[in-house]
Batch of 2 targets.
Target 1
Amino acid sequence: MQKKADLHVHTNLSDSTFTPEEVVRYATKIGLAAIAICDHDVVDGIDPAVEEAKKHGIEVIPGVELSAEYRNRELHILGYFIDHRNKGFRKKLQKTCRARIGRIHKMLAMLKKKGIDLAPEDVFSIGGEGSVGRLHLAVAMFKKGLVGSVPEAFKKYIGDGGPCYVSNFNFTPERAIYEIVKAGGVPVLAHPYIAKLDKAIPHFVKHGLMGLEVYHPEHSPSTVKHYEDMARQQGLLITGGSDCHGQGKSRILMGTVSVPYEIVDRLKAAARAE
Ligand code: AMP
Ligand code: ZN
Ligand code: FE
Ligand code: FE
């Protein structure tokens, strides 16, 4: 059987409901050969996942999903095979995590004006010790009965560009790419369909972008074809993953999108060549 890898998995250090150990056990159960832990702006889920993986013979790839802002849009840059112990890199992530806390307070103030009254603790008690974000806020709104569902929270209030959306990220995409490369990683544009910034991709390539996440649950077959073609034209690596958030999405997505293990070898080679 062909070895498969899911190159985009979250843990509860960001906004999944699964601990790093649960992520590894689930990935083992469904027969994946490798997973990349790519939490939003935090790398603390990697070491516990690596430890657990030793018991199961599965490979854990150190990764990250950096938030960046470009022309009033939120954009995510994945970093593969980063040195997650790099002190300078970790310091920058800590700064982003602090900004994320401030951003929740700002969004809560905006929601209050719309009649949605939540205490900061309602959100922070859901977010773990890592990075806090909009999925935690949406779950808090749902739990309090302030919206009928998590997607409704995004649709009505906190989705990209929504009335209570706050961006508040430190990095431009160029900077995020630079920081990933500096930490020894391979920078890849996450779910480009969601980012909707095709025209800017050649510019990001000039700044060191090395890949596109072509396979993603929100990419239709025609979207996949579109980004496969673009990756070839631009000489970029092709990656893919499920963006699994445990029970944080309507279902457990891990393994529903995966790539052949050769892609992992290509990412490793690219990281070594830097
Ligand atoms: P943040 O990093 O705080 O901006 O939150 C980003 C996370 O919010 C993504 O990883 C998604 O899990 C989630 N998200 C963004 N937009 C939506 C949406 N429309 N519906 C459900 N979840 C969303
Ligand atoms: Zn997320
Ligand atoms: Fe993302
Ligand atoms: Fe993600």
Note: The first strand starts at residue 4 and ends at 9.
Target 2
Amino acid sequence: MLRIGIEDAAIATGHYFLPLSELADHNGIDVQKYYVGLGQEQFSWVAEDEDIVTMAASAAQPILAPEVKTELGSVLFATETGIDQSKSAGVYLQSLLDLPKNIRVIEVKQACYAAAAALQLACAMVAREPNKKVLVIGSDVAKYEMGGTGEPTQGAAAVALLVSASPKLIEFDATTGVFTNDTMDFWRPNYSTTAHVDGKTSISAYLDAVKGVWQDYQAKGGAPYSDFARFCYHQPFTKMAAKAHRTLALENGIRLTSPQVEEQIASTTVYNRRLGNSYTASLFSALLSLLENDNQDLSGKRIGLLSFGSGSVAEFFSGIVCPGYQGHLRGKDHQQMLADRVQLTYEKYAELHERSLPTDGSRFQNPIVSTGAFRFAGLADHKRLYEAR
Ligand code: HMG
């Protein structure tokens, strides 16, 4: 039987972070609402010369060794922070990462669910052409109106996943449960740089989807709840994973106490507490957080993954952690990446939040701020200009 799963994976994030204590001070809110009520401590933010393309390139670079590039068949770029209505953000990666010409590249969209959709497409592509690997990327900047209730749940990150027939981290099971429900809980019209959200509706849409995907997964003969060692959830804020886990357990007749919920999902929330919402990347940074921070050996254990994208579409899927996975992780790099971010003051954050780029095609240079391998250098003739350092 063909084994299909994740061979390698890495996270990248923005140059900056804002401690939520700064935001709480400014907004006159008890910071415990953020720390405890939302389960968030910080959020990442992109510098003037960063965007979803530079974060995606930084996430993908470490997993694209020369021999991997020659085996690459497709790049699937999931995002809801698109930079162009026509050209896929993934195509820019060809120049930045020196990717081969004989690859297919597309952008995938359905709110935060898009990277899970891309992953399912990638599995189908590998099943069709097992000697080719697929690079799946989720890259987003989550941006809400300043002063609104969504503001503390902003964030930025990219995750790159190498999907292949030689998985070293997790091998996926074929059965998945899906659920779509046309809802206006969160959306971003083309003319808006910030998302519109009905916060309470979005939470109940997510929890309805938890039940919906699980019922579909069970109806299709999926593994029982008791088979799972851990569950990873999409984390718009980490407390949402707690709500989702409690709901899934209840759906299986198990009433968990708050400490039990916390204990069972704690290792999946280590990165997202500090990254903030990274939309498409969030579920997969939860998976890497689990693999890199759980104190149990998860080899051979079944993990459940629940992706939710507002609007709304959700999927529950699962996989078995590969024996020896510890030798293929990048936990130290990810800790370093978080530690290396530069702390923002509230004033600088506000300036970056409200900054806009020219739309008249004039030549414009971004200041040199970020220190990573890739820069969004500026604009000319309505084109984005990127640089690899
Ligand atoms: P809010 O109205 O400011 O917060 O918005 P609240 O009053 O509901 O409080 C939040 C929690 O903090 C509550 O706990 C309070 O009790 C607690 P809960 O009842 O939920 O357990 N609290 C405190 N705890 C300790 N000390 C205190 C204190 N004060 C209050 N002093 C909301 C919260 C999440 C709605 C808002 O931040 C928001 O709209 N966020 C954006 C939308 C969102 O993240 N929705 C989640 C589901 S939708 C989703 O996941 C998809 C998404 O990622 C987008 C996509 O798919 O592309 C968003």
Note: The chain has a mean pLDDT of 98.
